[in-house]
Specification:
With about 375 residues, this protein is mostly helical. It is about 80% helix and about 0% strand.
Length: about 375
């Protein structure tokens, strides 16, 4: 198994998230956009995940050669993002963001299938590979936080382009694994998606990402408005992902002890607590530190349990589309709705009520997961 080559792709892919998620909102505000426009533009990054992974997932399941798809998508992302250096105004920036995120979002679900194909029955080792994505995120938020403080938000553009190039180069190092034989008697994808436990799972992961809207779109802006400098904001983001790294190291034991369903329910409940703390206690640095440590639950355990369940729900010829659906329903549709709604709520209701609503949505997701995901899915 090409451990380091697989890990390198995760390292750079999530390093890009470490640039876009915390700092793109600051870049857009520096360009003169208000909260509603920022929410709408950030929603584009999420919205393309609704369509793109399913198109690429269908291609991957039918054509095979998933790494060719990943390489092509990564290269086109580099070329399209380069246009951001000359894009001006809302619609030009929106167009470039739509195009580069359409191709960038094609990569990860396909790469997840490739990773699991290499892992075969060693599924527990996934977290040991995926942890390098968290390390890439941490390195980026810390370094870019310092650079933004020293040179201003415009430094974000060349930094993001450099990471896009690194993603493409790392994709050239991984070859397609040998194809696995598909079972001939599999149910159709439609039949799988009609099961109440599957519907409950997708509703829960959708609600989780809706609740993340104010965090992804406005956390850095919120911290800046409370007087925290760019370096400290970067360190707060990094602390959250550092907690996630520690969590990935023991994720196998958690899943074996409690099962994926219970872990998912706990993740959603703790997300509700986290958003209430951030929205109401942002002036207290110690409480912000506690809230960031909860990122281990709201992303770390959540994503690991989600990927684990998808791996069990979608087998054989449905693998690629299963991962694509998870990505598009949660991080795509959920993220887009969350970003868009948070922009309007932020401007109309203010930060505290926006985060309060996010907390309620996460708690609703916990109830849905507890009520509808079958208890025998406590793998």
């Amino acid at each position: 198994m090409p451990y380091w080559r697989l890990s390198a792709f995760y390292l750079f892919y999530f390093a890009l998230l470490g640039a876009l998620v915390p700092y793109w909102g600051l870049f857009l505000r520096a360009r003169g956009f208000d909260a509603v426009a920022i929410g709408e533009l950030m929603a584009i990054l999420m919205a393309t995940k609704i369509v793109a992974p399913n198109i690429w997932g269908w291609l991957g399941d039918h054509l095979g050669h998933r790494m060719k798809i990943v390489r092509m998508a990564s290269l086109v992302s580099v070329l399209v993002f380069s246009a951001m250096f000359v894009a001006e105004g809302f619609w030009a920036i929106a167009l470039v963001m739509t195009l580069y995120s359409f191709f960038w979002n094609a990569s990860l679900p396909q790469f997840e299938v490739i990773t699991f194909t290499y892992l075969k029955d060693r599924v527990a080792r996934y977290a040991r590979i995926r942890v390098w994505g968290s390390i890439g995120f941490i390195a980026t938020v810390v370094i870019l936080g310092v650079l933004v403080e020293r040179h201003g938000p415009e430094v974000i553009l060349p930094s993001v382009l450099l990471i896009f190039v690194a993603i493409w180069l790392s994709s050239l190092l991984v070859r397609d694994p040998d194809p696995e034989p598909h079972p001939q008697d599999q149910p159709s994808l439609g039949a799988i998606l009609k099961k109440p436990s599957i519907i409950g799972f997708f509703v829960a992961v959708f609600l989780m990402q809706v609740s993340h809207g104010p965090y992804y779109a406005f956390y850095s802006i919120f911290m800046q408005d409370h007087g925290y400098n760019g370096t400290l904001i970067g360190q707060l983001w990094a602390l959250g992902v550092l907690a996630e790294v520690g969590l990935f190291m023991v994720m196998h034991s958690l899943l074996n002890t409690f099962g994926a369903r219970r872990v998912l329910v706990a993740s959603l409940a703790l997300a509700g607590v986290r958003w209430l703390v951030i929205g109401n206690l942002a002036a207290s640095l110690p409480m912000l530190l506690v809230a960031q440590l909860l990122h281990a639950a709201t992303f770390g355990t959540f994503h690991a349990a989600g990927i684990h369940l998808v791996h069990h729900y979608f087998r054989g010829r449905h693998k690629g589309r299963g991962q694509a659906l998870y990505s598009s329903v949660s991080f795509g549709a959920g993220g887009a709705v969350g970003s868009l709604a948070s922009g309007y709520a932020w401007q109309g209701l203010g930060p505290a009520m926006t985060y309060g609503a996010a907390g309620g949505i996460a708690m609703l997701g916990a109830f849905v997961a507890w009520r509808w995901i079958d208890s025998h899915h406590d793998y």
